[in-house]
Amino acid sequence: MIRVHHLENSRSQRVLWLLEELGLPYEVKRYARDPKSLLAPPELRRVHPLGKSPLIEDEGRVIAETGAIVEYLVEKAGDRLGPPPHRDAALRYRHFLHYAEGSLMPPLFAMLVVNRLGLLGRPARGPLRRMFAVHLDWLEGELAARAWFAGEDFTAADVMMSFPLEISCQRAGLDGSRPNLMDWLERIHARPAYGRALERGGAYAYA
């Protein structure tokens, strides 16, 4: 059985959600963040030297990095929720699968650091928000053209996009002024598998 090393309020919630969508059996080992630093506990280094979450264990393997885990699970499930058959949709699927971590998460992390700097971080807040708004405007337009990020069907690319867009509501100004993105968030939150993953993973601040 797949074991998920799950850190609270983290990217690993997406892994639980995908497992529920795919119907793959799994167990959860939960980890709490340090209450002061909010970092992952040192126990995770016993599973993988980097001590980061998510991690999964399956068939004697330890697999790290959310995107790699998603690709592994999709393949294990016979490519369900994987790339659509149409070439353009398949390219969009791959793009958003990697865009979520490669392009969206770095500025969101920068905003987190800047906000923690208090007055020292104030000069950087406006430029970061404006830079990130370009991403949000583009994504709003993408969802005006189709129901889901890859095409007309829900895929694992939508799972990958969930975490940065959920954080964007709290940290980067995503609100009702971008109705297509907000509608997409409402639709993913309404999926039964999403609800089951929350039950398995525990409290999740970004849902």
TrEMBL record:
Record-linked PROSITE patterns: GST_NTER
Keywords linked to the UniProt accession: Transferase
Keyword Ligase attributed: no
Molecular function GO terms recorded: glutathione transferase activity; peroxidase activity
Domain annotation GST N-terminal: ranges: 1-81
Record field: catalytic activity: RX + glutathione = an S-substituted glutathione + a halide anion + H(+)
GO CC annotation: cytoplasm
PANTHER family, per the entry: GLUTATHIONE S-TRANSFERASE 1, GLUTATHIONE S-TRANSFERASE-RELATED
Protein name: glutathione transferase
Organism expressing this protein natively: Sphingomonas oleivorans
